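Quiz preparation item.
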């Protein structure tokens, strides 16, 4: 017999993913705002290609975050409304393993993007 606390044991990780996705989403919005401000100012055209690459990378990050948000919501549905307890625990465990790998990949991609953008801004737009 499956105890409900076995499913509940997954809740802290689930909540941390939701928080992490929110933080990455907020940071990406800040990056896009900085980028828009740079593009609206008089800047040297030699930077345009690099700035377009960052814009593309931000949009791709938005897509990855959005997909993960949906996958995390799907996990919540399974945690709450799956048929029998045995299949629910099995499904939750499989989904958690899959999402753990995806979250790790997206978080690493985000860290790289953030670092690259900060370095680029520091080297080219710090006054």
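Solution:
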């Amino acid at each position: 017999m499956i105890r409900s606390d076995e499913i509940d044991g997954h809740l802290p990780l689930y909540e941390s993913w939701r928080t992490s996705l929110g933080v990455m989403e907020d940071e990406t919005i800040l990056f896009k705002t900085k980028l828009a401000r740079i593009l609206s100012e008089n800047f040297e055209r030699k930077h345009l290609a690099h700035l377009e690459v960052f814009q593309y990378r931000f949009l791709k990050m938005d897509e990855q975050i959005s997909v993960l948000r949906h996958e995390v919501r799907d996990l919540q549905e399974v945690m709450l409304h799956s048929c029998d307890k045995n299949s629910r625990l099995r499904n939750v465990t499989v989904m958690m393993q899959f999402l753990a790998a995806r979250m790790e990949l997206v978080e690493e991609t985000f860290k790289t993007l953030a670092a690259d953008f900060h370095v680029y801004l520091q080297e080219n737009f710090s006054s």
